[in-house]
């Protein structure tokens, strides 16, 4: 038996509990609705740096050694991530160790040790990481597609680009950023497992209840401004291809249509693009469709690898320009999408925590557990046809090719 319960502290901090009776392992996330797009001038990659510093020591756990002692002694998993619109600390553990893990993660987020020595060390590590990422094909394609789709907007912030090397970071600057981050109206404590909501609420109040209520973060709304940036790729026989189209904001009802179209187009052996590109023509090994969504903008893209990229692109163009779903196609795609969401959400801690956290950072709230399924079930053919007509326009296509 499972249930999703949400509540708020008096200061506005969200408490989200997906209780699964009998599940003795659990997951916990401290989610902040701030990320790269919220950087100010001179703060390039500072949120990423703060993420690293949080895992380097705190008031009661002064170094990585003390942190690792708790993690290893409890058999837990601890990590953190930063993206366009969020910073998140996540952990998995046995339910019996909840109090120990909560004490650790709360201290790391509320009272990180902001020593200049640690900041200098982590600055060097992040800049090395960025240089490494710049040679990763998938990350590099992400860079060019995102920077193109969001060109000229606050969303054109990424963690890997030579112009985003961490510079001039001081303990004072990171301390000020940390204080901005601790805005309870933009924070959520999310748990999964056999954890009663009152138990989670009590712990959250004990550690985070002292944070003062603040005005919610208000961002300048950004819409995609497509501008194709031509990368200088090395020549080679096999090309990694990405086709991109500007898409929509997550607060629109059509946002549920994109993963449904993705399910119809790719991801299984009877999907259209897989059948046409691989089984009939032998042009690709695999092909995938995705949608990248921020809180007020987004883009849609298709990825594949081919030794005959021009022929494959022409085939995709032909398939998409004549794309039309039948009632049977729609029913099958909705069923598969719902089953996929249920399976992943109920069996994969990291997926479930990420799904709940992304709902929080996109919508500013955690929807009821059944809302996604209801939204998917409510989609009709006219909704799909509208999205296809509005966004699958090859005159607006950005094509990225890389070796």
Keywords:
Cytochrome Bc1 Complex, Chain A, domain 1; 403 residues; 10 strands; alpha+beta; 2 domains; 43% helix
Give a description of the structure.
This protein has 403 residues and is of the alpha+beta class. It folds into two domains: 2-208, 2-Layer Sandwich (Cytochrome Bc1 Complex, Chain A, domain 1), CATH 3.30.830; 239-402, 2-Layer Sandwich (Cytochrome Bc1 Complex, Chain A, domain 1), CATH 3.30.830. Helices cover 43% and strands 18% of the residues. The protein is built from 14 helices and ten strands. It has helices at residues 46-54, 64-74, 98-110, 116-133, 137-149, 171-181, 197-208, 257-265, 272-280, 309-321, 327-347, 349-363, 371-377, 381-391, and strands at residues 2-8, 14-20, 25-32, 77-82, 87-94, 187-193, 239-246, 287-293, 298-306, 398-402. The strands form two sheets. The protein has a six-stranded mixed sheet with strand order 1-2-6-3-5-4, sandwiched between helices. Strands 8-9-7-10 form a four-stranded antiparallel sheet, sandwiched between helices. A hairpin with a 5-residue loop joins β1 (2-8) and β2. α9 (272-280) packs antiparallel against α10. The longest helix has 21 residues, at 327-347. The radius of gyration is 22 Å and the shape is globular. 40% of the residues are buried.
